[in-house]
Write a structure and sequence with these properties.
Layout lengths: L3 H11 L22 H11 L11 E5 L5 H18 L6 E6 L6 H12 L12 H15 L3 E7 L1 H7 L3 H9 L9 E8 L10 H7 L2 E5 L4 H15 L7 H14 L3 H17 L7 H21 L3 H16 L5 E2 H14 L8 H14 L2 E7 L5 E7 L3 H8 L23 E2 L2 E2 L4
Parallel strand pairs: 1-4, 1-5, 2-3, 3-4
Antiparallel strand pairs: 6-8, 7-8, 9-10
The protein binds adenosine-5'-triphosphate.
């Protein structure tokens, strides 16, 4: 039996890993941000005119995830606010929202209104858009004395989702001409480097007055970032430089993501702590990497639309009951049609759309769809899940709509229209 008392007692006695683990969490804002001098300087130069009560240019920040965009903005914000306080100037108002969560133009406007004046909320739907706009103008002039910075994180999602968002963004960027006292500055943030190409030129010219790119960090830069945080996060002797280099190298291999590097280091520390190890060894880093991958896949699967989940489940069922044999797009579609009929309210997709979704799933890394030539039978896409079946089961099981289908044995497995018998290809009739 697990001796819980002994475990806790030992944990207190032997815990020599963390000094302050929160320093490794994403919400922690470090006092210095190595390798982001150029970006900090550019943004500081643009927003400095706030101190003379003038409106700065709107800014676009581009860079892949974990390249320090939010950290740099928060860093500049804290310093600008401090300077305003010291110089007796109205502190700017900052409204920050993530367009993944606040994902329509209407909601963006309503959210800004409600941040400015929570006591008189605008409903999250239902008003005509021009009424919400008028309300926003009224709130800005009432509650903002000076500049209001509006940060739209993941702005690309807003634009991609709704063509109408272009108009709302355009009007938001031009709102200053209708304001009496307040001035609005927009900071758009995007992880998609070529997002500008998708923007209406009118919106681009008013929102993208200044553009700043955040390049990915390389392994040496990540090492320095980790080192700076690790010094105060860990106890003496808990880790060596070798561990920091390993975390930096693994994160740099992906796309130079500082968040990933920090997560890896923190998770490796937590695993070492749970095992009551005196220090972090490379094995803990590799275990942490597996854990992070698993969490990422879980989050991805849970956020998929029902159609995509059903297609994944089709691949799961085929792989489960056709052990060892290859699966091709046609198999998946046949199985998908069987499952789709059993999910109330789910409409039937065409084979072409299912193929597109398989391609999207392939890009996410959850499966591998490889095109192979079959001589005179043409080219076929072979599909393999990249994660163990039992993992996919736990990622999808929370969706009640699919609950009864995990043990479903597809009828097409037995049918003679099955595309493969063993590894031998039989052409579909
Ligand atoms: N130069 C740096 N020095 C220290 N820490 C950094 C640096 N750059 C990023 N970080 C840390 O990495 C984590 C991720 O950074 P941040 O949230 O700013 O990335 P981001 O580019 O905004 O990512 P996303 O687009 O996913 O929101 C945070 O914990 C942040 O403090």
């Amino acid at each position: 039996m697990f001796d819980i008392e002994n475990y806790f007692e030992n944990f207190v006695k032997t815990n020599k890993i963390f000094e302050e683990r929160n320093i490794l969490r994403p919400e922690f804002v470090p006092k210095i941000l190595p390798h982001r001098d150029i970006q900090i300087r550019k943004i500081a130069e643009i927003v400095a005119c706030t101190l003379k009560n003038s409106k700065p240019s709107n800014i676009f920040l581009f860079g892949k995830t974990g390249t320090g965009k939010t950290a740099v903005i928060n860093y500049v914000k804290d310093h600008l606010n401090n300077q305003c306080r010291n110089s007796d100037i109205h502190e700017p108002k900052w409204v920050s929202l993530n367009c993944q969560q606040v994902n329509t133009g209407y909601r963006v406007l309503a959210r800004i209104c409600n941040d400015l004046d929570p006591d008189d909320p605008v409903p999250i739907a239902g008003w005509p858009i021009d009424v919400v706009f008028d309300k926003l103008i009224e709130k800005l002039d009432t509650f903002v004395h000076g500049i209001c910075f509006i940060i739209l994180d993941e702005i690309d999602i807003l634009v991609k989702k709704m063509a109408k968002s272009h108009d709302i963004l355009y009007n938001l960027a031009r709102i200053n001409s209708r304001l009496k006292h307040a001035k609005v500055n927009i900071i758009g943030i995007s992880n998609v480097l070529n997002f500008k190409n998708a923007l209406d030129p009118r919106v681009l010219s008013s929102l993208g007055e200044e553009e700043i790119v955040f390049p990915a960090y390389n392994a040496n830069e990540l090492k320095e970032i980790l080192n700076q945080r690790a010094n105060s996060a860990f106890q003496n002797g808990a880790l060596t430089l070798e561990i920091i280099s390993l975390c930096a190298a693994l994160a740099a291999k992906e796309h130079g993501d500082a968040r990933k590097a920090l997560d890896l280091l923190r998770k490796a520390g937590e695993l070492a702590e749970r095992r009551q190890s005196p220090n972090i060894t490379p094995d803990f880093v590799y275990f942490a990497q597996d854990d992070i991958e698993k969490d990422k896949m879980k989050e991805y699967c849970e956020s998929l639309p029902l159609q995509n989940k059903t297609i994944l489940l089709s691949i799961y069922s085929m792989q489960k009951y056709r052990s060892g044999n290859a699966i091709i797009t046609g198999d998946v579609y046949t199985c998908y049609l069987e499952l789709q009929k059993q999910i109330p309210g789910l409409n039937k997709l065409s084979q072409r759309r299912v193929s597109e979704i398989i391609r999207e799933l392939d890009l996410s890394g959850i499966l591998n769809a490889q095109i192979k030539s079959n001589g005179r039978y043409g080219r076929t896409k072979f599909i393999n899940l990249n994660i163990p079946l039992e993992n996919l089961n736990t990622f999808l099981i929370n969706d009640n709509r699919l609950n009864d289908l995990f043990d479903y044995r597809p009828r097409c497995i037995e049918s003679n229209t099955t595309c493969f018998k063993g590894q031998k290809y039989i052409k579909l009739g």
